Amino acid sequence: MLNILSVLTDLLSLGTGRRIQYVISKGGSEALLQALISAARTEPPDHSILLPLLRLLARVGQRDRKFGLKVQKAEATDVILSLTRQNLGHHLNLTPCLWVLRVCASNVTAGTTLGINGAMELLFKVITPYSKRHIRTVRAAIEALAALLKSKSNSRRAVNRGYLGGLLRLYQDWHQNDVSNNYIYIRRGLLLCLKHITNIQLGRETFLGSRGMEILFTSVQDCLSCKNLDPIVTTVTQILRKCYPKEPLPVVSVRSSYSFPLPGNVKTEPLCVGFEDDYESDGEEEVEKDLDKGDVESKEEDYDLETDVNKLRSRPVLDRPEEELGQYEAMCLELFHNFQELESESEEDKSLEDRTENLPSTPSHFIPSDNSVKHPNYRWRNQSVTEAGPDPGEKNFKVPLQTWTKKEKCRRDIIDEERDGIETVQNTGSCEKENPAKSHVFTLRPLPKEDAWYKKIFNPECEASTDPSSGERLETSDIVTNLLEEHQENIPFHNPHFYVARAKCIKSIPAYKDLAFPDFWGHQPPPCGKPVLERQYGVQRDKILDDVRRLIQPCDVIGRTVYDLDEPSHSSPGTPGCLTFFSKFESGNLRKAIQVREFEYDLIMNADVNSNQHHQWFYFEVRDMKLAVPYRFNIINCEKFNSQFNYGMQLVMYSVKEALLGRPHWLRAGHDICYYKNHYRCSAAAGGGMRGKYYYTLTFSIKFPHKDDVCYLAYHYPYTYSTMMAHLDSQEQNRNPKKVYWRKQTLCQTLGGNPCPLLTITAMPESKKSDDLEQFYNRPYIFLMARVHPGESNASWVMKGTLEFLVSSDPIADLLRKCFIFKIVPMLNPDGVINGNHRCSLSGDDLNRQWLKPNSQLHPTIYHTKGLLYYLRSIGRAPLVFCDYHGHSQKKNVFLYGCSIKETLWQAGCTVDTAVITEDVGYRTLPKILDKVAPAFVMNSCSFLVEKSRESTARVVVWQEMGVLRSYTMESTYCGCSHGLYKGLQLGTQELEEMGSKFCLALLILHLKSLPCSKKVMDQAALLLDLDEEITDRAQSLKTRFANERDGNDRSK
């Protein structure tokens, strides 16, 4: 027997773990357990056999996942405990017994049995009292105890018997006496015991009652300066964070401060699903070392994939009566435009332009309804449309003459409506006339109040009128006039006059009266991009420990509310020594600000309207700051379990003083940024019965560039509804009407009463010849939309790039317009954007989960966008490409989500019969093109899987119900890029707009690759694309050289 054990020991101590796995597979664990039982029964015990046998069992048991079950099956639990008791006074024999005990306890069931049979009492006899004798044995006992305490029943037993207090005292003894840090593993082992005990509510309560927070907090201060003690610091941080007493958010209710009455008897969004209070998963504890490894992107969950082939291949029936679709004909007037009257119309248009030269353009207010005009020849086409553009049978699509005349009359009526609308604006102001009760004067937020600074910017005679202390903020004040005179016309497609005119027309729940300066003044991209912020090691644990200090050392905590959206009378703005906050402007979101310490503030975001969740977007004003002082801000009610703020993302800041000095930039800002779970929970009273919902803290520090400045902080580059409408006005004014066919209509009115614009953009026909007109009518459609989620402002910047390129004089844009007709809904959720929501509309619903069966009253923009797509399909003109622009908060880069039956089934592990399931792989063409032409786009980040949880999104519904093969969601990161030309850089508005223009370029290349083209178009495209490629290569080489020079400068520093 002894020889066999010696041979096994030699074999298993050499090489890799493959030998041990082989022994396990051949029943080695069971054989060793039987040998142990037999050896233990001999009298007296033969330790020459037991010791090597126990060492072998410990080694094999570590690799055997079922070792605990095998111990129970062999009824070896009592034998192991008996051997441990027998050897309490013989430490050389005791240590191998403890090793086996630890391995057994790794199985919760076996560990529970050991605990019932008195294992913990034995272990406490070994580890107490404090002594540096027999260190090896003490370490083995502590590790075995930590394994036992993973069992909840053992943890309760330990608490009830007073072991938690003993562990705290023992940890203090080891910490105080281990001056040279030679016994880190013992100290961490004791902390692991405490960590497991505090996984239960009783353990946390006892820990607090035993002053555990104070003991660990005080002890960890001695460890922060030594990196070798990081394992101790990390474990202490996790325990303190977990045991911090749970509190409700300091708000009356977690529901939004804003509510909106819904039409009819409609239920609002259900409350969030909560979690049990009694247990916290260790997996949710962000370990510092894991965060420092870099960005780990979440993968698609295979269990969520749709594996029902019939569902994937089905074409659902219409979600509305067929006769309703005729109303959308008025949104496709380009198909019925009679260009024979172009010359006579041009005179009228010129006269119209002269009258409206200095006014923002007014859209034609076509509101779909049951009484709208119906298409006389309308019919529903049941055939499956997998490719966009005209159906094969529709290639020579012509409108009958009598229908054409009818349509031209309809178009004339709409032009008359436009003219009447513009005259109304000119004479009285249409917005105020619509609802006099809601008319109000918009005022610009007060500017910085430093007198010397005013003298520098404005003429001395203006000083009296610009003193904000007067309290008067009139729209016609000298300060606004001077600002507009000073404004340099160097921000493309931004006009403050247009913006103010559009801002007056919005309808918001708070009835905004103030304009945020950045939206009024405009934004220019900074001259160069900013690198992803390098994460300072240990920043998260330092912030958490700073939060704990509030609890145990509250002497310097102020706790003053300085801004409160719910109770303005409870706030104390303008108090000496504190910042002043404000957020009641378009897209603003800040609910409450609490001054914690002199330079630290807790901030609470407002939930989406009619909701109690979706806290992510923030946008607010701050003023009265000191110079060169790091202010810390903690946004304490975030909801996502992780964020790109942990991987180098920064928020954005806009300085009014900088803007008026000629640098109107939204800049990435902030340092010491991290994101972690905090101690706030959703209480039953605040959540209407919901409990256990976790919140997370986004913390960052900022040094403001000027004293007494006015600065704006936001989650991402803001892009308001009024900005979008003013942008469209500028585009319409600046386009070349001889080349660009532009029509702006109102898709519908939103739930809040704001118009949702619909654009049609293409090229004017080259002539009035029948061939040119036929080519115009038969151009395939591209359908684009953005901003269904209000907080995804990056989607609007990408859309801005797309629109500016489409109406530009660029030869490629001109050729692209000749190839396609673009239908664009630039902002699908105006109400959400206006009222500062992150995810939902005023109904409290995520509109991108309503596409299966949208409600015409609650989700009008989705209902009518889907109706327009249905109409296009019904006349054989389903889009070649459908793309919904979004933003992504968890991943880097720009990428596409598409739809593929085969890829979904393959990913789910299903067998795919290629003879039965055929699929056009053309859906991959566009992302492959983008990967080559767009620097921010990464093909490897794309996914073409169809998930069950996404079946009601625009991408999946348009793919299934409209039969659009190339139906995509384009996701743009809030952060930066991990590949390509922009690797290591955070994306700015310039890069996002570039992505929008490159998407257009990719569409042109897709057209050349996928559709038949005339030789003239091919030759023109070949020349332009070669030229564009040459320019792109030159720009990339310049950027690469700049990056290399920057790296060289960094190294030289």
UniProtKB/TrEMBL annotation:
Residues 717-1007 form the Peptidase M14 domain. Its EC number is 3.4.17.24. It catalyses: C-terminal L-alpha-aminoacyl-L-glutamyl-L-glutamyl-[tubulin] + H2O = C-terminal L-alpha-aminoacyl-L-glutamyl-[tubulin] + L-glutamate; (L-glutamyl)(n+1)-gamma-L-glutamyl-L-glutamyl-[protein] + H2O = (L-glutamyl)(n)-gamma-L-glutamyl-L-glutamyl-[protein] + L-glutamate. InterPro entries: ARM-like, ARM-type_fold, CBPC1/4, Cytosolic_carboxypeptidase, Pepdidase_M14_N, Peptidase_M14. The active site is at 971 (proton donor/acceptor). One of its GO terms (cellular component) is cytosol. Its main location: cytoplasm. Residues 278-306, 343-377 are annotated as: Disordered. Belongs to the peptidase M14 family. This is tubulin-glutamate carboxypeptidase. It comes from Anser brachyrhynchus. The gene is AGBL1.
